[in-house]
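Weekly modeling sync, notes
Attendees: S.R. (lead), two postdocs, one rotation student

Agenda item 3: backlog of single-chain predictions. S.R. asked that every request posted to the team notebook include the full sequence so nobody has to chase files. The rotation student volunteered to paste the first one in as an example of the format we agreed on. Action items at the bottom.

Example entry:
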Amino acid sequence: MMTVFERMKERLLKVGVYGDDARALSWELKAYAAELERLYTELGVMFRERFITTAEDIGLSEYERIFGPEREEESTEERRRLLLLRLNLGNSDFTVDGFRKALDSFGLSYTLSEFPAIGRMNVIATADYTAAEQAWIKNEVKKIVPAHIEFQLSFNTMTWEQWDALNRTFSDLDSDDMTWEQIDNRTANAS
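Predicted structure, as returned to the notebook:
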């Protein structure tokens, strides 16, 4: 592959204004070529960062800033995968499988329960999210839930196995006179 300098020299020599031995032209073209090579490299980076499938740094960060959340702790491939999932919603995706696909695009750890007879879905987020992450997740999930579906999203890091390991009946828990949130917090801290 020809360098920028070689391409410029070849084209200018064809014009016939310069001879092959024009040293001043060579030095001038080499100076231009050095900067043009740098610009071509920058343009190549900008072009790659423009598309999710080729972005590696600032392009991914900008897409994540727009479509959220920023996941700099993830690998480049995982960040691309989550963004592509997020942007891959179509008109036929307003089904339970489409909803799962959308939840997956957030990188959410969850369990989904569907109650079609009453038009309701429950999602329990099973990972430990900060208050800011929970607020963002709630806001984003509201955007994708079909309007005709009653929907509940809750955050609970306790699994059924952990509840069973407490070896307490509902009456035992009820006698503590605590809210579910207080129970969740106490049992999560105890485990």
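Discussion: group reviewed the output briefly. The CA atoms of residues 93 and 99 lie 7 Å apart.
Action items: rotation student to repeat for the remaining queue; S.R. to check formatting next week.
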